[in-house]
Amino acid sequence: MNSRAKAVVPLLLVALSVTARAVPAFTAVQLAPQWPTSPLIDMSCLNDAGQMAGAVATTTGSQMALFSAGRFQYLGAVGEPYIMVHELNELGDACGTAYEYGQNGLGRQRACVSRIDRAARNRRTLVALPTDVGSWSVAFGLNDRGEIAGITWVPDHEPHAVVWGPNGRRFLKELDPRGSRGWKINNLGTVLGMCYTAMGEYHATLWHGDRITDMGTLGGPSSNMVDINDLDAAVGYSRLADGHSVHGFIYRRGVMTDLGTLGGDRSVPSAMNDSNWVVGYSTDGAGDRRAFLWENGAMHDLSSLMPPGFDQILVSVLDINDRGQILALSFADDGWYDYRLFLLTPVGSPALAIGGIESFGK
Question: 0.85 exceeded by the pTM?
Answer without folding.
Answer: yes
